[in-house]
Structures are given as structure tokens and as C-alpha cells.
Design a protein that fits this description.
The protein is α/β, with parallel strands linked by helices and about 325 residues long. The chain has a single domain, classed as Metallo-dependent phosphatases (Purple Acid Phosphatase, chain A, domain 2). Helix content is about 30%, strand content about 25%. It is built from six helices and 14 strands. Strands 2, 3, 4, 5, 6, 11, 12, 13 and 14 form a nine-stranded mixed β-sheet that branches. The protein has a five-stranded mixed β-sheet with strand order 1-7-8-9-10. Strand 7 and strand 8 form a beta hairpin. The N terminus is likely disordered.
């Protein structure tokens, strides 16, 4: 929190503005998370439950601007594995790219195999879809109907024996440009950014590991903005003593035991890689699915699931 002088003068005001703005947005973000938490539906689970959390697929229209199309085969193989293994699929927002595309029907038509798999989970009662900022059409930020599917703003998974709660939300609610200013942001993405992508401009919103290249000015700006709203999410989880599972940042995170219980799925659009979180046997782990260069006898690309962290028992968290 900022420390203010006893007297705020015109000379001191410019120095205080960044802290004033930061504290104001923190209060707005935390208030929003509190309200959403208290109205979120509660779904029971136990140590026999198998859950997979993926986010930020950004399924588009299969054009050059569609960040998902290069990973669709990888995503579908991972999703088929989870369906056959009895997992419940929690899509943690930004499943579809409805800022670039006005019509969900066009997205559904572009990726029929993917939606067939998702609808299998829905038919089996093993699907929870959450609303991300890129799923929002119109002004309704609490619910979005996608054909036979419905995305809601948040979900609380509550352990039947221990009462532990896992608050799951996309996370854009702590990001002013994606939440309170979403109408302006969506307009810019639809009218400007998509056209640049169609012309072949590199997608700078898709973060790459910083050690792989020298970060330029735009990389630093994006990282600074991302760090600002991640701090708000981490602070809320710590203050509330509440496990928080998010997406939105495209950066995977697994909370250390004893630290703020903040988890992040990562994303499904980094070329040849998707990341997520799995819960089974009462433990949570971070996983990565990778597309390999070789194909099998049927000509299907081989994929590999890698465990990034040893499973950590959920009982170690609040």
C-alpha cells in the first residue's frame, strides 16, 4: 500500500498518482472477486474425482488470425485422453475467440471435431465452462450461451470431506483493460488487431519464455501489465486464504506450499504446447502436452504428456 504525506500538494500529486491508481484498481479488483466468489455455484468433489483445468484456447475461425488452429490436433488428442480416463473438464475461460469473431456459429463450424469432444463431456455431465473476457459478446459478463453449452463466470469446487474450496475463475476480473474496459478492448481487437494478424503480424500477445529471446520494449510493457493484475490475484488469494485457480495470463503457475494459494493453467496456444492443471487422488499437478515431430502408423501426429511438477496433496493448501 502507498504511504501518503500528511499534506498532498500540487507538487507532490504527480508522484502519488501511480500509487493512487494502483490502489484504486486493487480495491476494485478485490471487491469484484469477493462478489463473484459469494455468488459462484458450488460443486462437490472428493479424492476419487479426476479434474483437468485448461484455458485460453482462443478457438477462432480457422483463418490466419486463429491462434488455436495450429494446436487443434494436439488439443483434441489431450481432450480425448481426459474423456476416456474419466476426467471432468473445466474450461477456465477464453475457450473461444469472440472478440475477433462476431459469431460463435462460425467458430463452431471451424472446429467441429473439438466441439464434438467438448459436447461428449457435456453429455456425460463432466463439463464446466467458465467465461473469459474473449468469450464475452454484448454486455453480459456473467453468462454466455454457446449453442447447447453455457459458460458461467465462476465455479467453486468443494471437497465433500474436508470442506476445502477451490475458487475457479478466468482471472480477467483483476485486469481493468479486459473487464471494466472490455468494450473498448474488444473493439480494438476486432477492428485493428485481427486485421494485423491476417496480414502476418506476429502475435505479441502470445507470451514466449523470456529466456528464448531478448525482450523488447513491447515485451516489457506486456510483462509489466501482466504482473500488475497477477499481483492483485495473488494478493486476493493470500488475503482470503482461498485456493484460486485462474487462466488469462497465459503463464502457468503452481503455488508453493505455505505461499499464496494461486494457481494458473497457462494456455493452449503456444505453438506445439499446451499446459494445464490436473487433480486426481486428492493432489494437484501441473502438466504439459507436447506435439512431437513423428507420426504413428495411421499418420496421426504423436503427442506426449509431461508432468511438470510432482503432484502436491490439496490438504497442504488452505
Amino acid at each position: 500500500m502507498a504511504t501518503f504525506p500528511h499534506t498532498i500538494t500540487l507538487r507532490s500529486l504527480p508522484l502519488l498518482l501511480p500509487d493512487l491508481v494502483r490502489d484504486a484498481w486493487r480495491a476494485i479488483a478485490h471487491g469484484s472477486l469477493d462478489r463473484i466468489y459469494h455468488r459462484a455455484p458450488v460443486v462437490p468433489f472428493d479424492d476419487r474425482s479426476r479434474l483437468v483445468f485448461l484455458s485460453d484456447s482462443h478457438r477462432g475461425d480457422n483463418s490466419r488470425a486463429d491462434a488455436f488452429r495450429g494446436n487443434e490436433g494436439l488439443f483434441n488428442q489431450a481432450l480425448a485422453h481426459y474423456h476416456d480416463a474419466g476426467f471432468t473438464y473445466v474450461e477456465v475461460g477464453d475457450g473461444d475467440e469472440l472478440w475477433q469473431n462476431r459469431s460463435f456459429a462460425a467458430v463452431r463450424h471451424a472446429h467441429p471435431r473439438t466441439f464434438d469432444l467438448i459436447e461428449r463431456f457435456h453429455h456425460d455431465g463432466r463439463l464446466h465452462m467458465l467465461l473469459g473476457n474473449h468469450d464475452i459478446q454484448g454486455l453480459n459478463r456473467r453468462k454466455m450461451t454457446k449453442g447447447t453449452l453455457t459458460a458461467q463466470e465462476a465455479l467453486i469446487l468443494q471437497h465433500q470431506r474436508t470442506g476445502q474450496r477451490l475458487f475457479t475463475i478466468h482471472g480477467h476480473q483483476a485486469d481493468a483493460t479486459a473487464d471494466q474496459m472490455h468494450v473498448i478492448s474488444r473493439l480494438l481487437v476486432r477492428r485493428v488487431w485481427k486485421r494485423l494478424l491476417l496480414l502476418g503480424v506476429k502475435d505479441v500477445h502470445r507470451p514466449q519464455p523470456l529466456e528464448e529471446h531478448a525482450p523488447g520494449p513491447w515485451d516489457r510493457i506486456m510483462e509489466w501489465l501482466r504482473a500488475e493484475f497477477v499481483d492483485r490475484l495473488v494478493e486476493w488469494a493470500d488475503k482470503s486464504n482461498q485456493v484460486l485457480i485462474c487462466g488469462h495470463t497465459h503463464r502457468p503457475a503452481l503455488a508453493q506450499v505455505g505461499a499464496a494459494p494461486y494457481f494458473n493453467t497457462g494456455n493452449c496456444v503456444d505453438p506445439g504446447v499446451i499446459t494445464g492443471l490436473e487433480i486426481q487422488h486428492g493432489a494437484i499437478a501441473q502438466v504439459r502436452w507436447v506435439a512431437r515431430s513423428e507420426v504413428d502408423a495411421q499418420g496421426v501426429q504423436r503427442v506426449e504428456r509431461r508432468l511438470l511438477t510432482p503432484p502436491r496433496p490439496l490438504r497442504l493448501y488452505p
